[in-house]
Amino acid sequence: MAQRLIGLLIFGLLVEPEDVPKPLKDRALAATVRIINHTRRTEGSGVLIGRKDQSTYILTAGHLLERGDRLEISTFSVSSYPEAERVYKKVEVVALTKDMRDLALLRLSGDDAPRRNLTLCPLPLLPKEKEFDALSVGCGFAAAPICVLEKVKGAKQVHRDEKMKPALFWETADEQTPGRSGGPLLDRRGRVIGIASGANDGKGYYSHAEEIYRWLKGTDFAFLAEDKEDTPGEH
Fold first, then answer.
1. What is the pTM of this model?
2. Beta strands across the sheet bearing 42-52
3. Which H, E and C letters describe 131-166, residue by residue?
4. Model pLDDT, residue 231
5. Spatial separation of the C-alpha atoms in residues 199 and 149, rounded to whole Å
């Protein structure tokens, strides 16, 4: 495991600039958070996805929040990396799916809530290629988020059993390591196209942007699903 961790860190931290521009990578790392569920003693990731009034919202995977009554969020910045910039212990779960979409929304409130974020990719601008490269960001075995280039094999309807409605996921050639669940999958402009959900048969699965939009528009937080271009976040 130690050798795998070292390899992942080297790969994640030394992505070549021609493959991933440094400004994009910096924005991605600064918008990705570490989530600790102290009740279940599990860890995962999430992405700062928007802000309204004095609140910042975090999109993540729903399965991370089972019995999540004691959550802790660590945020990072370019200047603090790889150390956490701030640790928040007052975290609200404001929306949560109970189905295959595996999505959840957290809220940090107050003057000290982070003011940077990434945005969802507008649906018409989602990658059209059958296979393409994308950037995944998550904490994995490390305490800080790292970037990894993923080979996306396309979109796929996934179902668990006959009682549960299938949902659309991006399928990647490689599975996520533990701790990266809830982290974002980004297009080449740094827009969120998916959220890491799980793995099966050596492949990774990310909740598809179509499912994210559909779900958010049915909640009280539909403003997070407004089609808009991303703007540079504060680091």
1. 0.89
2. 86-88, 71-75, 32-37, 42-52, 55-60, 104-109, 92-96
3. CEEEEEEECCCCCCCEEEEEEEEEEEEECCCCCCCC
4. 45
5. 16
